[in-house]
């Protein structure tokens, strides 16, 4: 699949980032700066230390929570 994307991007002269999924807004994922029970960003597979997320835009608290929470193994 990536070879196809790379080929199409090259032919159309489109930056690869145009094929990347956009991050969602905090409002869309009901983000809050405090945990929900034991669930918090710091234990989510999508969290990127120190204060970022793979799918939610903006500054993310390690103690925060949103509806995209996915517990790390």
Fold and architecture overview:
The chain has 73 residues and is mainly α. It has a single domain (21-73), classed as Irregular (High-Potential Iron-Sulfur Protein, Chain A). It is 15% helix and 5% strand. The protein contains one helix and two strands. Strands 1-2 form a two-stranded antiparallel ribbon. The longest helix has 11 residues, at 2-12. It is globular. It starts with a helix and ends in a 20-residue tail after the last strand. Mean pLDDT is 83; it is low at 2-9.
Tell me the name of the CATH homologous superfamily.
High potential iron-sulphur protein
Rg calculated over all Cα atoms = 16 Å
Number of domains: 1
Count the E strands: 2
Task: Report the biggest beta sheet as strand number plus sense, adding barrel if it closes.
Answer: 2 strands, antiparallel
> Which CATH class applies here?
Few Secondary Structures
**Uncertain segments of ≥5 residues (pLDDT<50)?**
2-9
Helix fraction, binned, reads 10-25%
Spatial ordering of strands, largest sheet: 1-2
Shape: globular
CATH topology: High-Potential Iron-Sulfur Protein, Chain A
Q: Write the H/E string, N to C.
A: HEE
Instruction: Report the oligomer.
Output: single chain
